Amino acid sequence: MTTILELKGITKQFPGVLANDHVDFDLKKGEIHALLGENGAGKTTLMNILYGLYKPDSGELYRDGKEVSLNSPKDAIAIGIGMVHQHFMLIPVFTVTENIMLGEEKLKNAVLDRNGVSAKVGELSQKYGLEIDPESFVEDIPVGVQQRVEIVKTLYRKAEILILDEPTAVLTPQEVEDLFRIMRELTSQGVSIIFITHKLKEVLKIADRITVMRAGKVVGTAIPSETDESHLAAMMVGREVILNVEKEPAQPKEDVLQVIDLKVNDLRGLEAVRGVTFSVRAGEILGIAGVQGNGQTELVEALTGLRQSTGGKVVLQGKDMTNNPPRPIIENGLSHIPEDRQRHGLVLAYPVADNLVLCNYYLPPFGVNFVMQNKAIDENARKLVKDFDIRTPSPFVPTSNLSGGNQQKVIVARELSRPVQLLIANQPTRGLDVGSIEYIHRQIVNMRGKGVAVLLVSAELDEIMSLADRIAVMYQGKIVDIVDTQKTTKSELGLKMAGAQAQA
Amino acid sequence: MDKSEPQVKEEKPNAFIRIVKQVGNALLVPLLAVITAMIVGGLVIAGAKGDPFAAYAGLFEGAFGTLRALSETTVWATPYIFAGLAVALAFKGGLFNIGAEGQLALGAVASAWVGYRLPELLGTTIPGAIHLPLTVGAGMLAGAIWGAIPGWLKAKTGAHEVINTIMMNYIALNLVSYLLNGPMKDPDPLNVIARTPLISEGAQIPVIFSKYRFHWGFILALVVAFLVWWLLWKTTLGFEIRTAGSNPDAGKYAGINVSRTIVLTMTLSGMLAGLAGAIEVTALNYRHELGFSQGYGFDAIAIALLGKSHPFGAVVGAILFGAMRNGATRMQFLTQIPVDVISVIQALILLFVAADAIVRFIYRIRAPREQVVLTRGWGK
Prior knowledge:
The complex is a heterodimer. Chain A is of the alpha/beta class. Chain A is 32% helix and 27% strand. Chain A folds into 2 domains: 235 residues, 3-Layer(aba) Sandwich (Rossmann fold); 141 residues, P-loop containing nucleotide triphosphate hydrolases (Rossmann fold), CATH 3.40.50. Chain A contains 17 helices and 24 strands. In chain A, the strands form 6 sheets. In chain A, strands 6-9-10-3-11-12 form a 6-stranded mixed β-sheet, sandwiched between helices. Chain A has a 6-stranded mixed β-sheet with strand order 18-21-22-15-23-24, sandwiched between helices. Chain B has 2 domains: 63 residues, no CATH class; 286 residues, CATH 1.10.3470. At the A-B interface, helix 10, helix 11, strand 20 and helix 14 of A face helix 8 and helix 9 of B.
């Protein structure tokens, strides 16, 4: 196999951070080369350099042995590099064809040549086994198919090198299988793929070669057949990592949270939660599995008082809490690790110490007679920073200075350090590094051990499988089924997440 | 951007050093903005065939050169401080109060009414210990109501406070104009000016010096600046205001009633602007005369921006603006350079503070990690 792309000694310095430190990377024709690393390891910076978005401070880039210099994504596209971003760049109200031709519009007799492009799209999708209907509107097709549109978009621009940035984050297990099939089809026809991810299982399954990055440097390259998960994890983190959460069997007690036939509308006023009923007992973890966008966000917002429900009941510790604002619910024993930590969970401009009292600043010892007690707040901050191992120069720097993992630890420390009967954790480890994930998982299991009822919402099936005692699968606003974790398998859950055997 | 994990090393630094550092960092850009504006203003003066150095010397002399000049500077600065605090407090709550001018005018008119009319209505003089607080309180209340209305509209309907405070200005200013030309006009047959009668003695804050116009209002303004600082950073209400201003979503998540906080913030802001009007009436003019406000409420926006929305910054900005306004006359007298140049310089200061990227570029200063949220987009 010939090397078609080579990066040599790429270095990129950001203020205070060496994002890429003499990184070497190469890609052979027709291979899938996985780029593995924690958040902040420098993967995205490297790919942005390859896609012409950043200029490296030093280092060279070779395409088919010739040195090239990229000043914009246009240059990258011109030498056959295509990128599929984690967040799709599609316009929902346009058709597939229109989205694909956007920016490369072709005219025929002074009007857009829709038919010509549509035929070309059909041809491409057949050639590579990417089933898409060129005439359907993007908003009407599932996420997995939207991703195919993105891939066809790059192929339409004659890409021979495909960069896939965390492509499986938004997919169901079945859709992931489909994506892998497509990736193999593409490589068999000579396309080369750079696969960016932090998921170890996927890497082992699909990659031909694996390059691991840590703290801006390449720490090693591996072949899947010669390595395993724990070895890769250790390379990523720089130490041994416990991948499986160890926990005692659950000893569930009384119901803490009861949800009865709850209905919630989304932002557009459409019914996103269509009558769900479940309960969470003290001392157990109930996982809610499901592909993102099936009503989980709205469900959690209704349970935590951030959104009004349109029907049904929420009972917490025997008290009817339906459509209460957040404060009474919090005072009745709720802790909430929110899905969007920067939007809901933190005031980034505040010092860490202030964020650590965000929900109880008005209660003694932090607020006495409407006056903030700085001494108590400072003491609380010092203690929690130490107890929860929050890496910060001091508790008094703005929280925006902290890394994502440590920002999440600030939230976890705050939410777990006060009296709590119900913990709702929504995507608690999304975007975090392996070390932080391990830590947060342990904390959640600890809470269960203390008799707290835990509702865990996650799009990561592995996370749900390893933490939850029972799993409720959500599909299109309904709970399809609630099963014992011990009595189910990943593929069975995957089918339910995709809506198979849907029943109320 | 990638971020390496910082290590635990530094403890809480000495409080004094921390404050000095904070103030230094906060004041750097405004200070450079002022200097830059003075340089550009100097070029404008030179372009008009004037001598910028003589002009600035005249300006400085007029503002600080004599005791009288100093006293007049404080007279100018007093309403600027109150109004600047009003706008700064709203900024801290994530709200852009452009309505300070209207709130101030209504505060002045309400204060004047209670000052001269209440004793007439009661048919007796009221002891100062009751009348003065009533008079000042009426001004604060009027401003508070005028601020609360756009706040309530924002909280309940999402209507943007920028539009509504501007509209409330029109209503207030025209209402005041009507009152001073009509029902509240000084009935003295010799009077041709749109002004109220003098307020009764019990409603007046006594003068300090007979020779100088320096008055208690300036000292009160400094005290109020301290109180605003204390409210914002030392009380739970201040925490709520700043949280709702900095990240309303997180505020809601934390159990703060963000709608109520918005109304409260605008009420307090309007109250401070109303106080500016009330103090002009009770401590300086002893009546309300149409047009006494030289756009204090509008300059207050510039002052709050210059002071980085910090109460103490607003005091510094207010004194600077007061000094420039006051010194301008002397400058014109000495150098024949029109006072309007000062408006140009003030506009330039505001420009450089608002577009601080320019200043940062000129002096090669790195951008801060966090920025003050001055106002939010429409709707949500």
